[in-house]
Amino acid sequence: MGDEPRKLRYVDIGINLTDPVFRGLYHGTQRHENDFEDVLQRALDVGCEKFMITGSDLNESEHAVEIAKAYPGVCYATVGVHPCSAKHFDTHPGGPSALLSALNDLAKKAKESGEVVAFGEIGLDYDRLFLTPKDQQLKYFEAQLELAVEVQLPLFLHSRAASEDFERLLGAKLPQLPKKGLVHSFTGTLEEMERLVKLGLDVGVNGCSMKTDENIEVVRQIPLAHLQIETDGPWCEMRPSHASAKFLKDVQPLPKAVKKEKWSKGHMVKGRNEPVSIPHVAYAIAQIKGITVEEVCEAAWNNSMKMFGLGTGQLN
């Protein structure tokens, strides 16, 4: 292998760097020192050159934009309200229109200054209706799609157990979005993936996308022209119990992970997925598809640049 992995470059299109665990804070308690810079540096060292930080409500979107401002050309942000948080629209001071207006302002301003590259994370999640009921999810997914069209940002999408409504609402709006968008952390069926690709959308693959044998078959069939890769850290780590494990036999090991209580500089934290693991995602996809990891990386990089710009000026 030698220095081969160093030549590969990655975009982590879905990374939750606003999560306090990347600052050593777990459930409101500081368990170890803030190692945010180390997390970024570890990823940069393995060729992860760009990061798209997910916004899942107004506060997180604002935080994602702040991080993008602090790391220009490296970090970028998405702006939107996740379906599981869609009930926030009705409890927001000033009501739904005030929250939509705040999202609109943030997206417009930060798109112009280069920090925001996508509208999301928006979509539908019928697995977790206890967090936000279906009627609110549908209403505010549609409202945010209209905002995305107005601001002209590609979509960063979430879909769980809701494919029919999800595709119906998207079908009405996608013709007005030249860059279309991406369904991230994809765990749906082969047929669902094929329909999304037909709509012109890309598919984001991470550890959660390769848990089961059925997932593996779907990943095998994702066209390279519609593939992007992500870690979704601190979630979606690749585990030895997952179906993907058999495709990681020869991959370079990650830095040592220790329990958060035993953390010391240079270590990962057990159970906290990081962007440094993105080569493992690419490697597993390559093995599943029977192609080289270079092919996977080049396709994913080009697809991310084409859709999200990421400093190339393609978006504006």
Core attributes:
single chain; 316 residues; alpha/beta; TIM Barrel; eight-stranded parallel β-sheet; two-stranded antiparallel ribbon; disordered N terminus
Tell me about this structure.
There is one protein chain. The protein is of the alpha/beta class. It has a domain at 180-309: Metal-dependent hydrolases (TIM Barrel). Helices cover 39% and strands 16% of the residues. The chain has eleven helices and twelve strands. The strands form three sheets. It has an eight-stranded parallel sheet with strand order 1-4-5-6-7-8-9-10. A two-stranded antiparallel ribbon has the order 2-3. Strand 7 (155-160), helix 7 (163-173) and strand 8 (181-183) form a beta-alpha-beta unit. 46% of the residues are buried. Residues 1-6 have low confidence and may be disordered. Keywords: Hydrolase, Metal-binding, Nuclease. GO terms for molecular function: 3'-5'-DNA exonuclease activity; metal ion binding. A divalent metal cation 2 binds at residues 158, 184. This is Deoxyribonuclease tatD. InterPro entries: DNase_TatD-rel_CS (IPR018228), Metal_Hydrolase (IPR032466), TatD-like (IPR001130), TatD-type_Hydrolase (IPR050891).
Produce a short descriptive summary.
GO terms for molecular function: 3'-5'-DNA exonuclease activity; metal ion binding. With 316 residues, this protein is α/β, with parallel strands linked by helices. The chain is built from 11 helices and 12 strands.
CATH top level of the domain at 180-309 is: Alpha Beta
Order of helices and strands: HEEEHEHEHHEHEHEHEHEEEHH
Distance between the termini: 39 Å
Class by SSE composition: alpha/beta
Main sheet, how many strands, which sense, barrel?
A: 8 strands, parallel
CATH topology of the domain at 180-309: TIM Barrel
Using only C-alpha atoms, the radius of gyration works out to 18 Å
Mean pLDDT equals: 96
Q: Can you give the helix content as a percent range?
A: 25-40%
State the strand order across the main sheet.
1-4-5-6-7-8-9-10
Low-confidence stretches: 1-6
Q: Judging from the principal axes of the Cα atoms, what is the shape?
A: globular
- Helical segment count: 11
CATH architecture of the domain at 180-309: Alpha-Beta Barrel
Per DSSP E runs of 2 or more residues, the count of β-strands stands at: 12
The CATH homologous superfamily of the domain at 180-309 corresponds to Metal-dependent hydrolases
Q: How much of the sequence is in beta strands?
A: 15-25%
